[in-house]
Q: What sequence folds into this?
């Protein structure tokens, strides 16, 4: 004797034929429109998406939009030539036949992960594999791809504030007072203090560019910066560094430019 097939109670009513049927809740996208089969779905769409019911009713793409979409699709196939082969496999076949076979299959075979929860061990394994996958090189490659396709704005086209403010290590961005005219003196004083610290520590990125903030209207860019030369003090085992201007051993590491 074979295993007795379990009969599940209907939990949905088809929006087209009004027939009660069973479906796993996790497979339902819209509770207001549920269908017992593809045929009912297509029949429903024939009438429900006509005329003003269609969200694209009356909308027309201009030539610029058509060209942009065309370029995005072209780039997708240029970057991944294998997509053409994948599309060619199902060329001429009706998707209804494939979905019908899958439906018959899942009548006797439950989805592998249906009703199951991942154990802590499985979560840890998945987490470790994700860390290995999402490397810096992978993220950079994905960013370039999405920038080329037009989905993301290139970083060079973004202002520093847009990048760093969004990436700030805060649980929630509360108040951004950088452009508030009531705090100009406090803001500039803190900025000057930061620049001075960069100079004192001979920060690798020091230079007049760090003072050229969009909100720092009082600063005029100058190649001489603040008029100082800041060389490194020598270690005990090194000879005294030479002055950039005279070529002689320097007297002071930090000095006014000639």
A:
């Amino acid at each position: 004797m074979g295993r007795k097939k379990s009969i599940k109670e209907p939990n949905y009513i088809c929006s087209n034929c009004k027939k009660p049927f069973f479906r796993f809740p996790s497979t339902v996208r819209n509770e207001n429109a549920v269908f017992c089969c593809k045929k009912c779905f297509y029949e429903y769409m024939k009438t429900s998406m006509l005329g003003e019911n269609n969200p694209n009713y009356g909308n027309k793409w201009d030539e610029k939009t058509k060209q942009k979409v065309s370029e995005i699709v072209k780039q997708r196939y240029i970057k991944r030539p294998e997509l053409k082969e994948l599309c060619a496999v199902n060329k001429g076949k009706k998707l209804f036949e494939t979905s019908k076979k899958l439906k018959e299959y899942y009548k006797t075979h439950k989805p592998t992960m249906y009703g199951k929860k991942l154990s802590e061990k499985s979560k840890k394994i998945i987490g470790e594999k994700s860390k290995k996958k999402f490397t810096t090189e992978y993220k950079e490659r994905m960013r370039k791809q999405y920038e080329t396709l037009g989905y993301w704005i290139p970083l060079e086209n973004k202002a520093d504030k847009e990048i760093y403010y969004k990436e700030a290590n805060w649980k929630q961005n509360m108040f951004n007072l950088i452009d508030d005219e009531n705090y100009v003196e406090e803001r500039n004083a803190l900025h000057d203090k930061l620049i001075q610290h960069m100079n004192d520590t001979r920060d690798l990125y020091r230079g007049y560019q760090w003072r050229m903030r969009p909100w720092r209207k009082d600063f005029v860019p100058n190649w001489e910066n603040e008029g100082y030369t800041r060389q490194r003090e020598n270690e005990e085992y090194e000879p005294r560094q030479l002055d950039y201007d005279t070529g002689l051993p320097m007297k002071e590491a930090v000095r006014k430019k000639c």
The chain has eight helices and four strands. The first strand starts at residue 12 and ends at 13. The mean pLDDT is 78.
